[in-house]
């Protein structure tokens, strides 16, 4: 074979092996809803098709059907901005094969940077965790999406097929109410801090449960509004999204009221001063919430 013919053969083989994003999606009948939804946003589809080093979390048709049957899903169908944000939240910056997702969890940035839906520097995160050979992604409100087919390759990276649509993280107000933290939400409203914690970028909130507030109800009743505001500000870290994987044993972290809290890691758990984190890493629009028992 002549050198020129050999080169042509190699190029041809390369072209045959190439798999565009569109061809991969269209080749999987269980991803037809994702495909048709992406086609509503030609510029997004084009940018994804030409992108490199990305990971796409691809919900199945059944996953979309489940979403569209809910009030949130119906709202997304009638709001192109929200629907596009949902799609962008399913695209991770970087190529993450299933084998690279650690058992301790990893918070990876997505293409969701629209300030109408997120205020996290570098893009809203999604948490990936591997347990017993299975990979799960956690999104807003600790919603879970399990990988049912991993490492589907295409030109720009890989696709993981998931069984539930990711939930775009909501603001602190909605998250507190949905998580049963109504006393915290009421206290933030009473002290005019609710809007502050909703809009501050890159925050961490240590959120006491209703039971924790009830345990010190007599003390709270004696506080002025300003004193209560200072107590609540002591539960907020401003300018740092402190996911559980980034917390360090013994570190002291400044809070919104100027004082510091001490982080202790022991026996697989996390303490903030003397309070124990009971639910870690609840993703919100502008950061993360850790629910504490005190």
TrEMBL record:
InterPro entries: Adhesion/Biosynth-related, FAS1_dom_sf, FAS1_domain. This is Beta-Ig-H3/fasciclin. Residues 18-166, 168-294 form the FAS1 domain. It comes from Viridothelium virens. GO terms for biological process: macroautophagy. Residues 1-18 form the signal peptide. One of its GO terms (cellular component) is fungal-type vacuole membrane. Keywords: Signal.
